[in-house]
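User: Teach me something about this protein's shape.
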Amino acid sequence: TTLRQGRQPHTPAQELLASQTPPRKTLSRQRQESARSHLRFRSARNCCGMGGEAAPAAADALRALLEEEDEDLTGFAEDAAVQEALSCGRDLREHAEEVESSLRAVERESIADYIKESESLAGLHTQIRECDGVLDTMESMLRGFQSDLASISAQIKYLQDESLSMNVRLRNRKAAETQLSSFITQIVVPPELISQICEAEVDASYLGYVQQLDAKVSFAKLESTAMTSACADIAPELEKLRLKSVQRIRDFLLERVGRLKRRMTNTQILQNSVLLKYKGLYAFLQSHAPDVCAEVREAYTTTMSSVYLAKVRDYLTGLLALKVEPPSKSDLLAAEEWVGYTSSLFSSKPSHARGDGAFKLGERRAVLDAAGEPPLVLPAAQQEGKPLHYEAIFRSACTLLLDVASSEHSFLTSFFGDADSFDHVFGKSIFFAMENLEQHLVTSWDAVGCLLLVHVNTAQRDAMAARPVPLLANFFARVQVLVWSRFKAIMEAHVQSVSAFMPSGKAPETAPHYVARRYAELVASLRSLKVASVEPMLGSILRVLWTEVEKLLSERLARQHPTLKHQAALLINNYDLVVHTLAERGARGEESTHFEQLLDQVKTVFVEEQLLADNGKMISFVKQAEPLLVPGAPPEDAAKVDKGAMEHLTREFYDKWKAGIEAIHRDVVQSFSNFKLGMDILKQVLTQLLLYYTRFLDLVKQAFPHGPPFAQYILSIPTLMNEIKHFSRNF
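Assistant: First, the predicted structure itself:
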């Protein structure tokens, strides 16, 4: 490296001398600068001797030169070698000469070293030249490689461009091949498909052939396809195949629809297992033969309309043969009750009058619990032979209609794609059911049955709410209107019959009247049903009815009896019958509260009248004397009390009290046939008798403070109470 840089190697002696003396270059530079300063000083001095315009310039140059000399002196003074020489007190000129001689010696030694190593340097020079040649060769090779690489890079770029171009062409060809292949596949009609469409049996496999034909016909109708020559060539063949397939599908579907007319055919099984399986054939007709599609649909709706009508008619006719005869106009509340008569040729009693049975709910309530059950099976019901009320027949028929209509609606939606034909299919059947209901209502006077129909119809409407059958919704709404209108007409007839009822001339018995009995059963039945949708209107109707019944009992029947006691007994028996029947049936309501209040009022009247009949004098005396003997009354009032009458009443009661209690017992037994009611009335009468007698004894004590002279005829209270308890237990 030293030789390559053109410098000679240093010996140890030279390095030691270089460390002790300042570098030659530094001293030479200082000498040169000093010489230049001396020359500038001389020039400046010469210029100062000139006159004229050059004198000021020479003076400035002299001053600048002096300043530079000062700076040089300052620099030399700071030099380490100069400072060392000065510190030793040596002469600088001598020191400079020593340094100069040392430099020459070092220079000579250096030259000698170079001469000594000349051969090595020559060999080194030769090696360097050889290395330069090798490097030149390598440089030429690398430049060749660089040129080759540039050529290869250009070729690679060319190949990349060609590859991209070929890739694009390949993709385009593949896309064209795919589209062309798809076009050929969709437009070409294989011979196998032609034979299958024309000759194969129409079954599940035929549906696949039709779907292939449908795809080809639909493809041929596309605007992009229709303009091609291939489509023009194949279109006539496709049209022939379309017509052939349409004809075969039409014949097949009409034949399957015709099977629905066969008797004892399960239409739902045929629909689900046959027709629905081939709904793709109907879809083909919808797309490629709308007129034939309409023909098939019309044939189906017409067929099913007649099928459902026949089935509904047969079902209702079969169940109606088991129908219980409904109440007639002879079963109104105030219609004459026929007792002890039998129907005959010369009898005026209606053969179908049912008395109280027309108003009892009884087992008819079971139809409400069966609201969610399946419809009755007609053959099983006919074999059993059990009579059916119309509401049970209506429930079963409506449930059957709802199930069949829901199934038909689902089939129409699945097979035809919509349910537009539903009204046409079920219209006649629903009209027949409605007509049958109207015929029943016209001849029926069954208020309980009407309310049961309302209840059943409400349950059917709720069940239908989750099913999309609008025609049945209208049917149930119409039924609600018809049945409620008939119910109101029947109830108005009941009210009118009670209002127009006029009893015969002789006084009736005090036993419960048949009008009250019928009324109690009717109200109990209606209240037990609890139809929320008509509850407010039902309450209004029943309030009008109880008003008329109350008027009949209290104004027209009771007043035929001459005494208040018998009037009260009749009212008690009838009111108690109403209250007891409503409580027993679990139908308490406004009617129960109203008649309970009336019953309590009439009981009080009867008790008073019963006591007045046997103990009227004593009761009248007590009521007259009590105001005269109250504490604080004036003495003249006490003097007005008839003590002789008091003694007479005491003796009379003492003599007849047992007979009087027996008479009360006998009258109560005769007046009230109801055991519980009679016991209650007897207790009230005897308790009231005890109270009156106790009040009478209090008057005796007040009239005779020191004891009455007839004390031996006073009956003790415990004796009377024991006798009352005895009669109460025995009764």
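Now, about its shape. Residues 647 and 710 are 7 Å apart (CA to CA). The chain has 27 helices and no strands. If you'd like, I can walk through any region in more detail.
User: That's plenty for now, thanks!
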